[in-house]
Design brief:
Blueprint lengths: L1 H6 L3 E3 L4 E5 L4 E6 L2 E5 L4 E5 L2 E5 H4 L12 H25 L10 H6 L1
Antiparallel strand pairs: 1-4, 2-3, 3-6, 4-5
Length: 113
């Protein structure tokens, strides 16, 4: 394989910290510290290393600058999920506050009684 890549004029690109490939189902193929080689003239890119399938949520917020318009639907779905979870959490907080008495407008007046 390396001999064929060398024939295409592939060169190693140093300093790549991560590579993320976005799939149509909303998951991400994530490579951490991969070896990346490329030949722009041959339109060939090689990413080698340990790839992991991850959910988009696992990589947020650090991956936001890599998201394109194709991922807008997935990002909206994630935001709606967080909003729904936050709305449920708000109801629980209100239930917890029910045992706290209402002190009125001015705390000083209530404390003198």
């Amino acid at each position: 394989l390396q001999a064929q890549l060398k024939r295409l004029g592939v060169n190693t690109i140093p300093g790549i910290e991560e590579v993320n490939m976005f799939k149509e189902d909303g998951s991400v193929l994530h490579f951490s510290a991969p070896k990346v080689q490329a030949s722009v003239a041959a339109n060939t890119y090689v990413v080698s290393g340990n790839g992991e399938n991850k959910r988009l949520e696992e990589l947020l917020p650090g991956i936001i600058n890599q998201l394109g318009p194709d991922n807008l639907v997935n990002l909206k779905r994630i935001a709606e999920g967080y909003a729904a979870a936050g709305a449920g959490g708000g109801a629980k907080a209100e239930e917890a506050d029910e045992d706290i008495p209402d002190i009125g407008e001015n705390f000083e007046d209530v404390s003198k009684q």
